[in-house]
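Structure in, sequence out. Go:
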């Protein structure tokens, strides 16, 4: 899957939420812009190590904010950090964190970018602090 296919999957989600009136129109542009933020980060080398990407995704999948959505592509799903609203147990960012192809999850979007961090502090700054202490 190319980065452009990945972004298109994220755009499917944005359109789906907007049509269901679950995404305020004022946030539509921000959501679409987010996909390009990840593409730019990858293009400039702001990429987390593969082991960190996998660890991040495992934490995201286990989190109560994890939301799986089927995309318009057969056999392809997306994993998001909630809907970008605060839940009873903490904040969410609504970002794409993983994709599933035929049931196999892979890091995507936010989990790929080294400079990103979880809104619940499960990963990101914690990783950087651990590296500094090592």
């Amino acid at each position: 899957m190319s980065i452009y296919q990945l972004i298109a999957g994220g755009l499917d989600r944005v359109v789906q939420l907007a049509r269901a009136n679950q995404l305020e129109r004022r946030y539509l542009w921000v959501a679409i812009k987010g996909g390009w933020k990840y593409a730019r980060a990858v293009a400039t080398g702001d990429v987390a190590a593969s082991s960190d990407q996998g660890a991040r995704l495992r934490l995201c999948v286990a989190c109560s904010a994890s939301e799986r959505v089927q995309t318009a592509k057969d056999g392809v799903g997306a994993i998001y950090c909630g809907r970008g609203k605060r839940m009873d147990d903490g904040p969410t960012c609504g970002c794409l964190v993983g994709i599933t192809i035929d049931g196999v999850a892979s890091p995507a979007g936010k989990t790929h970018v080294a400079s990103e961090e979880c809104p619940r502090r499960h990963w990101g700054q914690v990783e950087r602090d651990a590296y500094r202490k090592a």
